[in-house]
Amino acid sequence: MGIPILISRSGFTAWGVDLARRAGLTLVGRARGRRFIVLAGEERIVYDGGETEENEDRDGTFAG
Questions:
Q1: 58 phi-psi bin (left φ>0, alpha ψ -120 to 50, beta other)
Q2: What does the pLDDT profile of the chain (64 residues) look like in tens digits?
Q3: Residue 49's pLDDT is what?
Q4: What DSSP line would sit under the chain, residue for residue?
Q5: Structural domain boundaries of the chain?
Q6: Whole-model pTM?
Q7: How far apart are CA 42 and CA 60, in angstroms?
Q8: Cys-Cys link to 7, which of 28, 55, 57, 58 (CB 3.0-4.6 A)?
């Protein structure tokens, strides 16, 4: 049994994001309060408020 989702209050390095994508992990960074950035495994995240353009960052990731 592995760890499918990894959440951190801080950010991740580009190498860490690349490894997470290759390993099939969902990687959530800069999680504070109700805000976060999904860096890998975006398909596993279900947003209860719906995906809107205001939630979408320039690189296509969503901040909750």
A1: alpha
A2: 577 999 999 989 999 999 999 999 999 999 998 899 999 999 998 888 755 555 556 555 655 5
A3: 72
A4: ----EEE-SS---HHHHHHHHHHT-EEEEEEETTEEEEEE-GGG---TT---GGGB-TTS-BB-
A5: 5-55
A6: 0.65
A7: 10
A8: 28
